Amino acid sequence: MVAPCTTTGDSIAVGLYPHLPCHMAYTKIGANTKTITTNAGPAVGTMIISAGSNDWKPDDAAFDRLRRKYVGRPVIWVLPGPKFEPARQSILRVAKHWGDTVLPLQGVGRDGVHPSGQGYKDSANILRTAPSYDK
Question: pTM here?
Answer without folding.
Answer: 0.90
